[in-house]
Amino acid sequence: MNHLLTLADAVATHARLTPHKLAVRDSRRSLSYAQWHERACRLANALLGLGLAKGDRVALLAYNSAEWMELYAGLAAAGLVAVPINFRLTAPEIAYIVQHAEARALIAQDELTDRVDPVRAELPVPADGYIAFGPTLPAGWRSYEGLIGAARPAAPTVAVAPGDPSALMYTSGTTGKPKGAIRSHEGSTLIALATALEMRFTRDDTALLVMPMCHANSLYFSHTFVHLGATCVIDDRRSFDPEALLATLARERITFTSLVPTHYIMMLGLPPEVKARHDVSRVEKLMISSAPARKDTKLAILDHFRNGQLYELYGSTEAGWVTLLRPEEQIDRLGSVGREWAGSGAIRLLDADGHEVPDGEVGELFSRTAYVFDGYWKNPEKTAEAFRGPWCSVGDMARRDADGYIHLVDRKSNMIISGGENVYPSEVESVLGAHPAIKDIAVVGVPHDKWGEAVHAVVVLHQGTALTEAELLDWCRPRMAGYKRPQSVRFVSEEQMPRTATGKILHRLLRTPQAA
Asked: What region holds the AMP-binding enzyme C-terminal domain (predicted)?
């Protein structure tokens, strides 16, 4: 049987080759490759000892921390499937994911267990499957450190094949409910190798992971550096601190980090004397992604990071990396997301009938990659919609210019990107539509200087009802994560809501400044 190294195999390899090398660090602790390997093996054996079996799903809920690296490696060693959950979600949102994934265990940071406790009775997790890490042990939870300390340090004997699932990455969609994208060990390893090849990373790199560890961005980049035997530093602050980020880049001698435009804007907007305190000359490569970046932002990045090369990527949880705008193309090809990654296969832009559109015309973007996802968990209909043979799409619309550069034009799902987080209007509309005073609702993204886009709701009320913006925003707080909640609301009459001849709301018209 062919065998492609899993994340656990990569950690084990470097535990043999460079056992004392720094592998992972956050603000609280650090792990060498040997220490990481032992703790991952102990975690794997502990979970198997609780009765979990290969293929079972384990939900993970935590802020950024070194534990994420232990969890991903430990679950891989045991053949268990990671279900990372965004720490910004509310209790009902968390409950849906755990239920849908049929998770048999839930590992959470002590500070976040209060999100789980109110919905425990609804979850499929057995009573002994709730595990917490952190300085305090909440009532009704098992000790993560206690389990690891009591487990065997030897590698488990579970046979994990390349095609076995390694993670269910939940991503929202047009249905209003998150979908679990199935990522295999093989896909995770291939994207890591493609990233190392294209961006010329080595074992001497030190990466700073700022994006949430529950997101595909940090997952894919962390795998890259682990396979190389490099070092990952994890930014575990609860909120983004631009000066603290600069200080970390300097102190840890970081060579690479991946950020969204909002992060760069906040960091480069600091007073010159503040930026001058921190030597970032070691930074060699920078990634910008998740939202369009303006020319002035890119020029400011290149001016401050004099030794750094800037890359911009387009991709998705499902397809992985799809296009890359390389350092020499940043200004000349402004507005483009680049061309295919090395080893990523090819891109097709198709019309509604599945025919390729000519250069310059808009079509739905399909990619064929070696590391594409394996479909949506328990959702064959949406899986079938995502594929045309080996070609995968998440519904983004784009055009290709005469030189082969891809320009994103619109999101088929009207997705909003606010501060690097994906917000799907249909999901927000589903929640707001449950308010008894609301007759109809449309959610769109509007431009925002800091976050790129802000969530804006356009509301039609039932006749005879009254509702203020403040009342609606307050009603939203316990029902959805903060980044999904509308930042502004506009109340309109039914006649003012723009629609097609068939009654469908024209979100495009609601995004104009006049409509907002």
From this structure: 427-504
Helix axes 33-49, 67-78, angle to 10 degrees: 60
Number of domains in the chain: 2
CA dihedral 433, 434, 437, 439 (to 10 degrees): 40
| pLDDT single digits (tens) 7-49 | 999 999 999 999 999 999 999 999 999 999 999 999 999 999 9
| Domain of 110, in residue numbers | 8-184
Residue 445's CATH number = 3.30.300.30
- Asked whether residue 391 is assigned to any structural domain, the reply reads no
The pLDDT score that the predictor gives to residue 439 is 81
Mean pLDDT for 447-471 is: 89
Residue 125: what are its φ and ψ, rounded to 5°?
Answer: -75, 130
- 3-class DSSP assignment, residue 190: helix
pLDDT in tens, 242-301: 999 999 999 999 999 999 888 898 899 899 999 999 999 999 999 998 766 778 889 999
Distance, first Cα to last Cα, the chain: 58
Q: Is 402 exposed, middle or buried (0-12, 13-18, 19+ CB in 10 A)?
A: exposed
Is 437 contained in some domain? Answer: yes
Residue 490 domain-assigned (yes or no): yes
Residue 133 lies in a domain: yes
Q: What is the DSSP letter of 357?
A: P
CATH of the domain at 150: 3.40.50.980
Q: Per-residue pLDDT tens for 222-244? A: 999 999 999 999 999 998 899 99
Residues 6+ apart with CB under 8 A from 286: 256, 257, 258, 259, 301, 305, 308, 309, 310, 311
Q: Which helix (H) or strand (E) holds 453?
A: strand 452-461
Considering only CA atoms, which of 2, 74, 71, 69 is closest in space to residue 31?
A: 69
Compute the distance between CA of residue 373 and CA of residue 494 in angstroms, rounded to an integer.
41
- Reported as half-sphere exposure (CB side, CA atoms, 13 A), residue 463 has a value of 2
Digit-coded pLDDT (tens) for 115-162:
999 999 999 999 999 999 999 999 999 999 999 999 999 999 999 999
Task: Read off the tokens for 373.
Answer: 């996802």
Q: pLDDT tens digits, residue range 486-507?
A: 999 999 988 888 865 444 577 7
The tokens 């994207």 sit on which residue? 191
Helices (H), 18-131: 33-49, 67-78, 91-101, 113-116
Q: Which two tokens stand for residue 130?
A: 């709730």
